[in-house]
Give the backbone structure.
Amino acid sequence: MDDLIDKDDMLARVDGDLELLADLVEIFLEDCPRLMSEIQQAVADQNGDALERSAHAFKGSVGNFTTKSPFEVAMRLELMGRQGNLGDANDALSLLEKEIARLKPVLATYGEHP
């Protein structure tokens, strides 16, 4: 878990409000499939502008919980889109999918209202 989130940092972002954290987790878990789909479509279409926008939105959303790997990969995809250099976008997308699959169950433990 330490390689995905810093619990203290995550709680500090919500001023220790576990109810707010649970709400944010719920929103993220509900919105994550749509956000990932937008990134996947942008990569499939090799559309740099769409990738920049969708990865930026995802980065902002996941940034509520972590600035570690999932955030870093989303930032990398955003930069690829901005630069129009999508040569490694499939590899980065694959890594993002793996990291999100690891992150979701961790976040789900915080998604239950206290």
About this structure: The longest helix spans residues 18-45. The domain at 16-108 is CATH 1.20.120.160 (Four Helix Bundle (Hemerythrin (Met), subunit A)). The radius of gyration is 14 Å.
